[in-house]
Amino acid sequence: MSISVGIVEDHSEFRQSLVYLISTFSEYRLAWAYPSVENALNNYAETDVILLDINLPGVSGIEAIPLFKQKWPQPRIVMLTIFEDDRHIIEAIQSGADGYILKKSTPNKILDAIQQVYEGGAALTPMVAKHVLAFLQPDAGKPDSPSNLTVREKEILTLITQGMINERIAANLFISAQTVRNHIKNIYDKLQVHSRAQVVAKAFREKLV
């Protein structure tokens, strides 16, 4: 079964290159491609993953994340952008993006990101996650709150930051996928996060791995 992909990118040449990339491989299927968020919202068709540019005319990519998530919670959203500064990365993650990769990434990296978020992972490399540290540093006067993660939860958190999906984590630790999901729910609750991208960023911020 192919992964359907929607694209929101205002640069016509780059948008066409993404269309060509997605259409080249049978594992992926182009659902739609629009130059603006407004076009995408007005003509939306169900899709598994959305590649969303940040710097768009009208509604920005970051502003669009909650708009897509509120109306259609099922698609995973990968920010595909030229920006790699702390502010854009953390704003995208806090708004609910499932991944953040750069436009200069190789075609294989873009396809890997689509596959990763589709399978429930986070397309957020350790390098990008570390980029948020300066922005997310806690106030000097405030002590870090303990995470209270168990040994098993820390093991699973480490594997999450390595990009592993639940099934691979289960196989690696010789436990069931359901047990992994239960542990991840506990990790989310303890770290007060809501997505894999957020948990990766917080893990690096608080040096949990």
Summarize the biggest pleated sheet: 5 strands, parallel
What is the level-2 CATH architecture name of the largest domain? Answer: 3-Layer(aba) Sandwich
The count of β-strands is 5
Straight-line N-to-C gap: 35 Å
Any idea of the CATH class of the largest domain?
Alpha Beta
Unreliable stretches, pLDDT < 50, 5 or more residues? Answer: 136-145
* CATH fold topology of the largest domain: Rossmann fold
Helix share, percent: 40-55%
Describe the structure concisely for a colleague.
The chain has 209 residues and is an alpha/beta fold. 51% of the residues lie in helices and 13% in strands.
Commentary on this structure:
The chain has eleven helices and five strands; from the N terminus they run βαβαβαβαβααααααα. The chain is of the alpha/beta class and 209 residues long. A five-stranded parallel β-sheet has the order 2-1-3-4-5, sandwiched between helices. Strand 3 (49-52), helix 3 (61-71) and strand 4 form a beta-alpha-beta unit. Helix 8 (151-161) crosses helix 10 (177-191), helix 8 packs across helix 11 and helix 9 (166-173) packs across helix 10 (177-191). Mean pLDDT is 83; it is low at 136-145.
